[in-house]
Amino acid sequence: MRLNKFLSKCGIASRRRADELIQMATTEVNGKICMDPAYDVKETDVVKYDGKKIFIVQEKVVLMLHKPTKVITTVKDTHGRRTVLDIVPSKYRLTPVGRLDQDTTGLLLLTNDGDLHQYLTHPRNRIPKDYEAIIEGRMSSIQIAKLTRGIYIGEKEYGKAEIVSQETHKGRSVVILRLHQGKKREIRRIMYRLNLKLITLKRIRFAGLGLGDLPENHYRELSEIEVNSLRK
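The structure assignment produced for this chain is given below.
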């Protein structure tokens, strides 16, 4: 088994991210740093990540978290800020599936299933993610058309989204946007380019699974049926 796949099956990260971690000299095989993601791990090999021996995860779990604001979507934070792993139990070595920025709330999945993580985060699979954005005013038909075609958002990147719905009341609109990409802070950069004031941003659906009535700062384990729906 390739070393990157081994790390993935141990719940460390997706295979793509494991490639990067291995090349950052984080992984030892039989007491020596190994920086080759393609190294063939044998049954007799002792593999350590960050100095700790790791094993292939037998029990796989997927959690849904309602992430609050001011919480970082990362495994560790060097500045001592609260992370999503401070909310969920440490029984499993969980990894966030994608990211929500510090000021964005809503649905975040965490799992120790490396293969599922890889599937849900790979751009070619175009996993749909729905966000509820509250903005000042209302998006015009011209702005919606621009967003549907794709709009330049800086750093040689284009943002693109489908507007699922828009409801306006007392000068503010609730806009539901569907993304299939997930670039860094994409919606915030889109709103900036469209000269729209974004008040709040919340992810409400991921790969067809809705947040439902899960309270903020709480989590729950997905059922087998829900996990199977993600795989499809």
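Interim note for the steering committee: The mean pLDDT is 92. The radius of gyration is 19 Å.
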